[in-house]
């Protein structure tokens, strides 16, 4: 018995290793397990270590994702200047992808190897909702670093992307051929239910609210009103957004002001010696992608492919109670980021299924080419087939990459208060000192990572 078939099978595998690049850790080691220790560090008093650990990976295949993670870690730690630099690297990566008109040789290699390995070989480009949040968070970096004009540039880009990403997705639907597969259809239906039947991953009330808030704070009430209305269309039951719409409609003397009053109640305005207190609360982390198996039948043989999915929707987060101002408040949810993530995956499943089907077929063709040579002996054919089957099992990994340091949920609250010093208390467990001045806004950003609740505030 010769080992020609085995050698050829192993040679193919070696070529695939070369094309994929061994630096792409997510090819064989799933991304959530790589980032888990970094996330744990956010519940310690030295969270910035995680950002420095990710720096070497920013130059790699998944550099965009690692730059987003590093920027978010630095932001949670309160190092807004460092976060700004990391985020800018991610923004530059997105722009590079936008500008690519031709497929480079390196991308061709990644695409070719993805047919034999898995989608983790393809450079990470991020779903639309991540890119929108990237610019939103960069705007907050500029604001908390004392650069309001830089913040305005980012919020305008965030708004523009909400429209562009929606248009891009609608166009992509025309180019995706639907493949009938019961397992995938069932998973899409389950994801839709898990996301709360969210219509789109690109329309984000949290981003619209933050952009509206910054427009208002920085003296652009007309733009603020437009963004608040968009936020209200996505989160229609949020009482704070409703009040913002009524207040600005009256302030701008809009003809619809009376209609808004009938729908949302009378507007509340600041007193002569009052300032406004706005609180943004981020809770927990987005869920981690899981994997499920999709069976295929090719030439009478059953093949399997791995696709990413999310677990069923987790229990709802409780609304945070806020004490310390003249009146106690209960924060209201402005966005469930986990629902955006689930919806984005649901939107991508048809394309992912098409790639997986092509990959399964390619692997089947390789196996067939080994067994089709009648000159080989039976044992040799068995060894070659076994080599390919083993390679198929090892290489077939779902693409579980996503921005995992994002919050699971965002809540907001807003109230006018007399000028002075206050101690704000959240859920009767965590507190922070704030200052309120007449005619100004005190913005508090509370980030809850589980065991740590960090406060950042700015007087604008």
From TrEMBL:
PROSITE patterns for this protein: TPR (PS50005)
TPR repeat ranges, renumbered to this chain: 205-238
Pfam families: TPR_8 (PF13181)
SUPFAM superfamilies: TPR-like (SSF48452)
InterPro entries per UniProt: TPR-like_helical_dom_sf (IPR011990), TPR_rpt (IPR019734)
Protein name: Tetratricopeptide repeat protein
Keyword Signal (UniProt): yes
Signal sequence, start to end: 1-25
Assigned keywords, A-Z: Signal, TPR repeat
Lineage: Bacteria, Pseudomonadati, Pseudomonadota, Gammaproteobacteria, Alteromonadales
